[in-house]
Each structure stands twice: as structure tokens, then as C-alpha cells.
Design brief:
Elements: E1 8-14, E2 20-23, E3 29-30, H1 42-53, E4 59-70, E5 73-76, H2 79-84, H3 94-98
Antiparallel strand pairs: 1-2, 1-4, 2-3, 4-5
Protein name: DUF2849 domain-containing protein
Organism: Paragemmobacter aquarius
Pfam family, one: DUF2849
């Protein structure tokens, strides 16, 4: 018996800055997890991942991350992904401070 597909978002890191980014439904890369496209179909998730992986001039390390629907958009399921939404963990300044 096959396992139920867990919804996903496509995430990666920007090539130049290293920022964590999320693929939106309109093919943009957003710094905000809740703007990501929540993909609920496994075949569609694999297609979106292929699309992301082909953008080698913009992002690196694209992968599918488990997510769930939330009141404002997708929310991370695992600690690692929740941690990645907050930016560098050394201290809050610069870009990540602006997103709080």
C-alpha cells in the first residue's frame, strides 16, 4: 500500500546571497514561506522541483519540503524548515531583522 502524499513546498537558496527562498505559484522566488505554492499532488511536486532545479543561475539546492495549509498560507511541518524561515541564527540584523 502506498503512503499518503504529504503536501510540499519547493525551497532552495539564492545563488548570490544564500538566502532561503520558496517557489511561488507564479514562478517567483520569495523570502516568505507563507507565499510559497503549497503543492498537494506528487506528480505536480516533482514537476515544480524540476522547474526549480533548472534555474541554476538563480538558486541552488532546490528540494521539496513538507508543509501544511495555514491561515496565511503554507506553514512548515518540521523543525528544520521552521528554523530556515527565520534566517541566519547568529543574531538578528540586516535582511532577517526586516522580515520579523
Amino acid at each position: 500500500m502506498s503512503r499518503r502524499f504529504i503536501p510540499k513546498v519547493v525551497t532552495a537558496n539564492r545563488l548570490r546571497e544564500g538566502d532561503v527562498v520558496y517557489l511561488t505559484a507564479d514562478d517567483r522566488w520569495s523570502l516568505l514561506h507563507h507565499e510559497a505554492e503549497l503543492i498537494e499532488d506528487e506528480a505536480q511536486a516533482n514537476l515544480r522541483l524540476l522547474f526549480a532545479a533548472a534555474q541554476k543561475l538563480y538558486v541552488v539546492g532546490a528540494y521539496l519540503a513538507d508543509a501544511k495549509a495555514g491561515p496565511n498560507g503554507p506553514e512548515p511541518v518540521h523543525f528544520r524548515e521552521a528554523f530556515r524561515t527565520r534566517g541566519p541564527s547568529n543574531y538578528a540584523h540586516g535582511k532577517q531583522a526586516d522580515l520579523v
